[in-house]
């Protein structure tokens, strides 16, 4: 009962402010433009030899959004916690719900919900312009293929997990600016660099597939990053990727629960 | 409407921060039906005590309970205890109404209460504006609205008068009186005695984390001194010393613990003619300052008959 109240309060907190939908709009515009461009390139508008063809083109176009945009749900998840520290609002939160475990659980549920919403945003932003361009160029849209629909469903799941992971990050580091720097540095620079670098040898490639971004890509399927990088590096099965990513999220939330969430509120 | 409150009990509460003791073996009880002032200078441990009571801080030892229960053990905390701590724990982009609506959801309080409490604290119109644009006084009122949300029988307010204009202070005073008359337990903190002097029925004064005084205002005001002088001052001092605390000052001897008549009688018995004899009632604020700076603590406690 208190958990349901906490979920209701936490979702009112998040969805009552502008932050989430501004981030969502930026992400949708970014993913939409990228998907349309990719569909145009691989769909044969440019003619000539294509590295991939057939249904793989549609799968690539539809799954790319999750590869380039997962930082958005991570940040939204992190803000659920960091905003409380930034504005000193944990005091009223804990006065209304003294059990910290209940507050944290409520936040995890809301993070998963908002992550799923971002996942839906990625799916729509990839599929609508992507399918339109692919259809216009005469390439397969893949919309009659169940595998393509599974990619969309797993995108929603992956983004839900990413948002929970972000909440874990926010719980561990607490400071909004620090979390933004970590997320941007890791997702935009460190992980892509590592994945390319580790892809050069077989042993390293098997390590590289356990990086969070690689695990997230594996969960979505469609092998977008690997396809872009010319197939370097191994990739986990989708369910393995899901377990790796979910495990990382769980560990971060647990560390946060044992540290930040036990602290005195001064 | 009667809202019989539960007593607040603080027992041997201690909170250690590194090598510093913010609260040191503090014990006191706050009874329902009256306004209790919780006083001490900044840094005396008031906020730490209140936060321990509200489950926000884990005490090093001891306990602080409401009706015998720790805050976290209360079945429905916001409908039992209403608390307003510092006046800046609001998200600036949320409206006052939005803030209260979230608290109401979290506590399972009907949403209709939000407008009721906004009306009661005089924020009915400002409620839909963003808190970022509120004055300190408006935030104090919003904090109070949050405390009243669950119609609790116990109220804990940290510095509720701070930042209010004179009209707001008068409003807050009468408001707190009404809440206490309804039978609620009302505990308000302040670092200025003069700020709450006209509001409180009972005082708990702490200094350096320890209890310095608990009792009513009259007990605190009981402190009077007698200033006496005689040409043979040294003999007079010797005659009075066995009966009271005597402090020699340039203008005479300051005697604590006897009234003017008793001082005169002792001098007469010793055969010492007086050149001056007068009574000085220390101001409450003086007594308070003496208490919290650690001087005359014992005397004041005795003076209060405790």
Question: Would you give an account of this structure?
Answer:
Chain A: It comes from Arenivirga flava. Chain A: Keywords: Membrane, Transmembrane, Transmembrane helix. Chain A: The chain crosses the membrane at residues 21-48, 60-81, 102-128, 148-170, 177-198, 238-261. Chain A: This is ABC transporter permease. The complex is a heterodimer of chains A (266) and B (306). Chain A is mostly helical and 266 residues long. Chain A has one domain. Chain A has twelve helices and no strands. In chain A, α1 (2-15) packs across α6 (100-137), α4 (71-86) runs parallel beside α7 (146-173) and α8 runs antiparallel to α9 (202-208). Chain A starts with a helix and ends in an 8-residue tail after the last helix. Chain B is an alpha/beta fold and 306 residues long. In chain B, strands 5-6-7-3-8-9 form a six-stranded mixed sheet, with helices on both faces. Chain B is elongated, with a radius of gyration of 24 Å. Classes of the chains: A mainly alpha (266), B alpha/beta (306). Chain A binds chain B through residues 1, 5-6, 8-9, 12-13, 16-18, 83, 87-99, 264-266, and chain B through 51, 54-58, 71-72, 74, 77-78, 83, 85-86, 88-94, 98-99, 101-103, 105-108, 146.
User: Biggest interface, which chains?
Assistant: A-B, 27 and 31 residues
Per DSSP, the total helix count of chain A is: 12
Sheet with most strands of chain B:
6 strands, mixed
Mean pLDDT of chain A: 90
* Bulk shape of chain B: elongated
Structural class of chain A: mainly alpha
Query: Helix- and strand-based class of chain B?
Result: alpha/beta
What quaternary form is this?
A: heterodimer
- Count of beta strands of chain A: 0
| Sheet having the most strands of chain A | none
Cα-atom radius of gyration of chain A: 19 Å
Helix coverage percent of residues of chain B?
Answer: 25-40%
Protein name (chain A): ABC transporter permease
Transmembrane segments (chain A): 21-48, 60-81, 102-128, 148-170, 177-198, 238-261
Keywords (chain A): Membrane, Transmembrane, Transmembrane helix
Organism (chain A): Arenivirga flava
């Amino acid at each position: 009962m208190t958990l349901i109240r906490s979920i209701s309060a936490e979702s009112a907190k998040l969805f009552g402010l502008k932050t989430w939908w501004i981030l969502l709009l930026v992400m949708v515009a970014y993913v939409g433009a990228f998907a349309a461009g990719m569909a145009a390139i691989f769909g044969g508008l440019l003619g000539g030899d294509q590295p991939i063809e057939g249904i793989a083109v549609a799968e690539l176009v539809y799954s790319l959004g999750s590869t380039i945009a997962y930082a958005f749900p991570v940040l939204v998840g992190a803000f659920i916690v960091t905003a409380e520290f930034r504005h000193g609002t944990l005091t009223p939160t804990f006065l209304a719900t003294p059990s910290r475990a209940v507050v944290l659980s409520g936040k995890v549920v809301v993070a998963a919900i908002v992550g799923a919403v971002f996942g839906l945003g990625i799916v729509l932003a990839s599929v609508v312009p992507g399918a339109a361009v692919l259809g216009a160029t005469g390439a397969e849209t893949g919309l009659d293929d169940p595998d393509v629909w599974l990619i969309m469903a797993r995108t929603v799941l992956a983004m839900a997990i990413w948002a929970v992971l972000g909440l874990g990050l926010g719980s561990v580091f607490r400071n909004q600016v620090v979390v933004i720097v970590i997320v941007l540095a890791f997702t935009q620079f460190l992980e892509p660099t590592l994945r390319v670098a580790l892809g050069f040898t077989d042993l390293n490639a098997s390590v590289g597939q356990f990086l969070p971004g690689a695990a997230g890509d594996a969960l979505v399927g469609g092998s977008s990053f690997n396809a872009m990088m010319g197939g370097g590096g191994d990739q986990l099965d989708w369910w393995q990727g899901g377990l790796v990513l979910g495990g990382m999220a769980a560990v971060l939330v647990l560390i946060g629960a044992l540290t930040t969430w036990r602290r005195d509120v001064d | 409407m009667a809202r019989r409150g539960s007593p607040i009990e603080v027992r041997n509460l201690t909170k250690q921060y590194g090598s510093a003791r913010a609260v040191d073996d503090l014990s006191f009880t706050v009874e329902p039906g009256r306004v209790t002032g919780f006083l001490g200078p900044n840094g005396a441990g008031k906020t730490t005590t209140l936060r321990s009571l509200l489950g926000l801080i884990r005490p090093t030892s001891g306990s602080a309970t409401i009706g015998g229960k720790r805050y976290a053990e209360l079945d429905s905390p916001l409908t039992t205890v209403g608390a307003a701590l510092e006046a800046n724990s609001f998200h600036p982009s949320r409206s006052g109404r939005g803030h209260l609506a979230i608290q109401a959801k979290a506590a399972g309080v009907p949403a209709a209460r939000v407008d009721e409490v906004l009306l009661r604290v005089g924020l009915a119109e400002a409620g839909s504006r963003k808190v970022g644009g509120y004055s300190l006084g408006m935030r104090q009122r919003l904090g109070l609205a949050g405390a009243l949300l669950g119609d609790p029988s116990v109220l804990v307010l940290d510095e509720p008068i701070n930042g209010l204009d004179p009209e707001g202070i008068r409003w807050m005073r009468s408001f707190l009186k009404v809440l206490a008359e309804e039978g609620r337990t009302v505990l308000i903190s302040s670092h200025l005695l003069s700020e709450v002097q006209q509001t409180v029925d009972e005082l708990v004064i702490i200094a350096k984390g320890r209890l310095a005084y608990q009792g009513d205002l009259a007990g605190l005001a009981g402190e009077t001194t007698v200033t006496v002088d005689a040409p043979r001052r040294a003999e007079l001092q010797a005659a009075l010393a066995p009966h009271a605390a005597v402090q020699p000052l340039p203008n005479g001897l300051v005697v604590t613990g006897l009234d003017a008549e008793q001082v005169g009688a002792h001098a007469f018995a010793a055969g010492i003619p007086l050149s001056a004899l007068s009574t000085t009632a220390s101001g409450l604020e003086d007594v308070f300052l003496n208490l919290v700076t650690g001087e005359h603590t014992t005397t004041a406690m005795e003076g209060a008959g405790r």
